[in-house]
Amino acid sequence: MRMLMPEDGTRPARALTxxxxxxxxxxxxxxxxxxLFARRAFNVEGILCTPLGGGAxxxxxxxxxxxxxxxxxxxxxxxxxxxxxxxxxxxDEGAFTGLDACVEGWERGRTLLA
Amino acid sequence: xxxxxxxxxxxxLLERQGVECIAGIPGGANLPLYDALSKSPAIRHVLARxxxxxxxxxxxxxxxxxRPAVFFATSGPGATNTLTALADAKLDxxxxxxxxxxxxxPLIGTDAFQEVDIYGMSIPVTKHNFLxxxxxxxxxxITEAFRxxxxxxxxxxxxxxxxxxxxxxxxxxxxxEPAGPDxxxxxxAESLTRAARMIDEAERPILLLGGGVAASGASRAxxxxxxxxxxxxxxxxxxxxxxxxDHPLHLGMLGMHGARCVxxxxxxxxxxLVAGARLxxxxxGQVERFCPKAKLIHMDIDQSELDKLKxxxxxxxxxxxxxxxxxxxxxxxxxxxxxxxxVAECKAAHPLLLPGSDDPRAPYGLVRRTGEILGPEAIVxxxxxxxxxxxxxxxxxxxxxxxxxxxxxxxxxxxLPAAIGAALAxxxxxxxxxxxDGSLLMNIQELATAAETGVNVxxxxxxxxxLGLVQQQQDxxxxxxxxxSGYRLRVDFPRVAEGFGVHAVDLGTSRDPLADLERALLRxxxxxxxxxxxxxxxxxxxxxxxxxxxxxxxxxxHAHAHA
Lengths: 114, 563
Known about the structure:
Chain A has helices at 29-39, 70-79, 94-109, and strands at residues 16-24, 44-52, 57-65, 83-91. By secondary structure, chain A is an alpha+beta fold. Chain A has a 4-stranded antiparallel sheet, covered by helices on one side.
């Protein structure tokens, strides 16, 4: 699941924060986290999720706009039972723009499966 | 080594958690659980007539005991029917555990018969939920469900168990130890010192107690602090009973239908000390104008409640009992004569008015008389509407864990099944359910459960043949256009009750209503008391939705302008 920056490359109006989450890795975690943001009408600009170590836990990066509600969102995320840690970092969209280059190989080299 | 099925394991774990009664309804996907339950010597099953009813029966048990209560439902419609009871428990922080059957694992995701994604659907209305993917996960999941439901700010947990997980065999050498709540962490010492100093320096402080004080068993700690520091004490709807009403520092309920003097004094206070209340809009009115002159000390076990709606000058994340006890030991002894004199003056000038208090056929009199007859031991449940607000305003001697009302979600249909649950968990206490005709109709099928179990539940039906609180808003704020809120058909509730096997009394046709009320309340077993009331009678005072609390209308001592 990935939502990216505007295609024309314009910077979002507000500063960005990246939330680094460490979570238990099972099929429902993403829906707990995304549901929390969705029902509080807090937009997530980018999501990256990768398994850590043996796959029992995952790292999720959420790129969000800074907003006066952000502290409340962080407190809500910390309440989720499967979220082990939340660390906020000042961020830019760099990692996510770079991501396009990373997946370019998939798009170019492989057959479209469906 | 013990070999058993997943279903047998679940029942064993529930027994070890001390569960004595489970409300629920069986169906295709939870029959293995029911088969295992049938062999339990320790757990009684109560067959509800609707899964929402089962959920509220569990809530009645949990709210009245403070311990997690369990209910069962099958997959599909059984599971979706639990959602309102779960949402209600989430908003009022009630520890219930809903165990649903799910279609077998190979069928999940195939739109199988009675398959719904209850895991996905219940995410926003539970504290946490589980879809059990393997029988090996059951020991951890069931104990975790109890730990999570009861820890910190309590809440509902849903455990969805596929049928083939229930029937799978598991071999265990030992069963996990029963889980209890996590230990509470002590509040930050520096914040406590600051809070004590702010209380000592305040000239016009008010203490506000919420449902968290009741949940934490902290009412004694609260009024010790109030007594020591001279704090007039208000309560939210869910906090009612935390301080007895005959206590000299007792103010009463704040908010939309609170006493005028409470909302007025909130306007004057210079320090608001909030314990275990989340400052919901029904309590604060327009929040920007709530306690405009006050500094705020907000104490809650849930950190996300601090600064959520109103920025606190000092937020303390702590269990209400722990923090109130600690503060009582830190504040200076204070008589606060000037402020308490002003409070007494305001209470005398703007008291809560309860017209018709003596007449058992008047809305307030019905509440007062019922309370006087039942005495201080009774458990009170309500449905949602005018009767609920009147019970909150007028019932004599409410106490924590004996006042069960749907505050956050405001669920019509809560009262009767919650009363059944409270009666099942407290067989030595009388239970009274104040309801209205609109609310009662929303879970009226549970009259059958009441009759079948013979619970000592008295249903006091203030019957205005309509949705009274809706009509009140239409009357006051929609140009008196009463639309879609009155019933054209008048239900014969005494006959309906008798059809369910529940004894019924009609005070409308009674020659001696007080004697008939007393006889009905004191007889054993379930009983319905129908009391016709005028649809035009509004509940006052009332803060218009969206307005500041100080803009309340009606309920003035000098006139009945709106009555």
